[in-house]
Structures are given as structure tokens and as C-alpha cells.
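Postdoc handover notes: sequence design on the structure in folder B. Input C-alpha cells:
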């Protein structure tokens, strides 16, 4: 029953996410009273996702030095630089929106990446390695990125952001891996039973985060549409950079799929949680926008790249037969 519910939620996630945003706006008065639950809900999401990661997966990190380094370069240097530049270009003088864009593209890659990589037959072990390294570094890299780019232009609780990431990402991940170790990898039933609740928690987090951004989302004007289009463009750029670098460096198809998803997807839930707890409401808008189409972009790019690879294989077979 739980497994079937999880499959239904997986397929429906791209459509349920916008619904959750709308609910957050409509129920903003009530939802804002329980925003304090966001860090706890996200801690559960991270734990549920990490239970499937074994200590062996952690050791596999050393097997993929080049793809990991390139992914980290895109994730933590190139994309934040682009986001900061685009923020100043399209929203000059609006430091809150620029900070929101920077935060949305400075947070680590998401654990949900693993689901899409598995669907389109990418390298699961490489994906786990990138997720682990990016997750471990995030409490230090994210506050550092914000400090370097934003400085004192906005009130920044550096220790708050760092401790929030440790509580919502690092500790639950470590606990999940430890549970995997204690059960000697026999966690399939546990992981599957927790998965649907993790997705429901994610949707709840989106509802609560949207309630904070309700003053901006309730009036769809030119500014809101501009933020939506900019975030969409930046998110698309992450996927494209992952593909371009993979092709340029001659990586295998499995590695290319993994890099595409790891560079394109972000742990947008934790980004929104950080924005809600530690920043002014205006900062949350670009991060919330990212939740609207992340799953849709993941499905779209997966389909496009998968179809392209299939055509390449057919053309190669035809050439060989000649």
C-alpha cells in the first residue's frame, strides 16, 4: 500500500507542487502560524532519503574525482556567479531578490536527484558521491557564498544558516547512513515505507514556504513574472552546463545523465526553509519559484536526453552494419 502510494506521489509530484504553492497562498494566515515546523519536516525528508545510502557508497567518492570536481565547480562557483550577475542585471537595486536568486543556486544538489538518475539509467554511485560531498560542504560553502557576494548589504545570520544546514541536512544524513550500517544494508522495506511520508512532508514544506511569500505570490504582476522567468532560465542553464561539460570532457552516457541532474537540480526545499527562517520574506520569492518547475524540468530534460541517446545508438548500429 505504501509503495503504491509512493509511486503515485512520484508521478504526481510535478503537478502537486504548484497546487501546494497555491494552497500556501490561500491558507497563508493559518500556515504562517506553523512555519516553525519547516526545519523539523525537512530533517525527516533528509533522513528518509539518506537511509538508502550505505557506508560503501561514501567510500565510492574517490572513484569519480573529475566528474565530482566539475560538478562542484558548476554547482558552487559558476551557477552562483551567474545567478548573482543575472540578479543585478534584471533587478538592479533589489538586493532581496538578488539574494534569493543567489541562495536558490548556492544550495546543494538535492537527494531527489537520485530518483531521476535511476529512472534514466545514470550513474547512481557517482550521483551519491556528488550528493554526499555537496551536502557535507554546504554548511560552510553556502554561508561563505552569501557573505562574499552579499556582504553587509542585507542582514545575514551566518551562524544561523550554517546551523540550519547542519540540523536539516548533515545530522539527518549521518543518522540515515548510520541506520543503514546498523541494519547491514537491509533497509529496502524501511526506505520504501518512509518514502511517501517524505514526499508529503516536502509538499507541506512548500505550502508553509509559499505562505511566507504570499504577499508577493497573491498579486501576479510584471515583477513576479520576471522573477519566474529568470529562475526558470537559471535552472535550465544548470542542466545545460552539466550536459555541455560532460560532452566536452568525453564522459560516458551514464556519467552525463548524473552530471546533468546533479548540476540542474537543487535541494530547493532546504533552500526555501533557510530563506523562510533566516531571511526577509522578499528573499523567499525566487526560491519558492524554483519549486514550481524543478520536477517538470527534470522530467523534460530526462526525456529529451534519453531520446537523443537512443537515436545515437540507432545511428551507430546503422553505420556499423554498413
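Designed sequence:
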Amino acid at each position: 500500500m505504501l509503495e503504491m502510494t509512493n509511486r503515485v506521489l512520484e508521478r504526481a509530484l510535478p503537478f502537486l507542487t504548484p497546487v501546494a504553492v497555491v494552497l500556501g497562498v490561500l491558507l497563508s494566515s493559518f500556515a504562517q502560524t506553523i512555519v516553525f515546523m519547516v526545519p523539523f519536516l525537512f530533517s525527516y525528508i533528509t533522513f528518509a532519503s539518506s537511509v538508502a545510502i550505505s557506508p560503501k557508497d561514501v567510500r565510492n567518492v574517490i572513484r569519480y574525482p573529475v566528474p565530482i570536481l566539475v560538478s562542484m565547480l558548476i554547482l558552487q562557483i559558476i551557477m552562483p556567479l551567474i545567478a548573482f550577475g543575472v540578479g543585478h542585471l534584471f533587478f538592479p537595486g533589489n538586493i532581496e531578490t538578488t539574494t534569493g536568486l543567489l541562495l536558490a543556486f548556492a544550495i546543494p544538489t538535492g537527494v531527489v536527484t537520485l530518483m531521476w538518475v535511476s529512472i534514466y539509467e545514470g550513474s547512481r554511485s557517482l550521483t551519491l558521491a556528488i550528493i554526499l560531498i555537496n551536502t557535507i560542504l554546504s554548511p560552510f560553502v553556502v554561508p561563505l557564498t552569501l557573505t562574499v557576494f552579499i556582504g553587509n548589504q542585507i542582514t545575514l545570520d551566518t551562524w544561523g544558516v550554517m546551523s540550519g544546514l547542519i540540523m536539516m541536512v548533515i545530522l539527518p544524513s549521518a543518522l540515515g547512513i548510520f541506520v543503514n550500517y546498523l541494519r547491514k544494508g537491509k533497509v529496502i522495506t524501511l526506505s520504501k515505507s518512509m518514502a511517501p511520508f517524505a514526499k508529503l512532508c516536502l509538499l507541506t514544506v512548500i505550502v508553509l514556504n509559499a505562505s511566507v511569500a504570499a504577499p508577493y505570490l497573491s498579486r501576479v504582476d510584471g515583477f513576479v513574472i520576471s522573477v519566474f522567468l529568470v529562475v526558470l532560465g537559471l535552472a535550465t542553464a544548470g542542466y545545460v552546463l552539466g550536459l555541455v561539460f560532460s560532452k566536452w570532457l568525453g564522459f560516458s552516457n551514464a556519467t552525463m545523465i548524473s552530471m546533468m541532474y546533479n548540476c540542474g537540480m537543487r535541494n530547493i526545499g532546504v533552500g526555501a526553509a533557510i530563506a523562510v527562517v533566516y531571511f526577509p520574506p522578499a528573499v523567499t520569492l525566487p526560491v519558492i519559484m524554483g519549486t514550481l518547475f524543478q520536477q517538470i524540468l527534470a522530467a523534460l530534460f530526462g526525456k529529451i536526453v534519453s531520446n537523443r541517446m537512443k537515436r545515437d545508438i540507432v545511428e551507430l548500429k546503422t553505420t556499423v552494419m554498413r
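Context for whoever picks this up: The mean pLDDT is 81. Don't rerun without checking with the PI first.
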